[in-house]
Amino acid sequence: MRAGLVSGLIVVLLASLCSPASAQWKWRDAKGQTQYSDLPPPQGVAESNILSRPASAKPRSAASAAEAASAAMPAALPSAKTVDPELEEKLRKEQQAKADKAKLEDQKITAQKADSCSRARSQMHGLDEGFRIARINAKGEREVLDDKGRAEETRRVKAIIASDCK
């Protein structure tokens, strides 16, 4: 007895879930083929070619039907008015998020270049003033730059200044 009641409730529940499928549009396109969709037909479809519509949908007014008949847009292309506003909003937010991310990345790169420029200018000032400059070599030993090393370091620092200090 109880199993029959449960299975009956399941059947009623499944039947109620199928009701959105009845909200279907049926129309004949420009080629004469019958089209089915859960979205309304494109604006170029004449009112007389709409074969069925959901119960909640209202027929187009005579003025809008005349506009649809005289529309220069081909019937196969969806009109801009049938685009889902929620989808448009979601796409707009995604594009804004991408733009914000790119802007943040550009700001990060700009800050890194400004830091690099500042360090290079400081290094160049030390080279120009004749300060002793030392490096740690591959063995971990400290070595002071000779004239050849200073010239190489000067070229390297000038290249950094040229690329990062704009």
Please render the helix and strand layout as text.
Elements: H1 2-17, E1 25-28, E2 34-37, E3 50-52, H2 62-69, H3 85-129, E4 134-136, E5 142-144, H4 147-164
Antiparallel strand pairs: 1-2, 1-3, 4-5
Helix pairs in contact: 3-4
- Indicate the percent of residues in helices: 40-55%
The gross shape turns out to be elongated
Mean pLDDT: 81
Distance between the termini: 85 Å
Write the element-wise H/E pattern from the N-terminal end onward: HEEEHHEEH
Cα-atom radius of gyration: 36 Å
Count the E strands.
5
Q: What about the largest sheet?
A: 3 strands, antiparallel
Kindly report the spatial arrangement of strands forming the biggest sheet. Answer: 2-1-3
Count of folded domains:
2
Name the beta content range: 5-15%
Q: Report low-confidence residues grouped into runs of 5 or more.
A: 71-77
Structural class: mainly alpha
Number of helices: 4
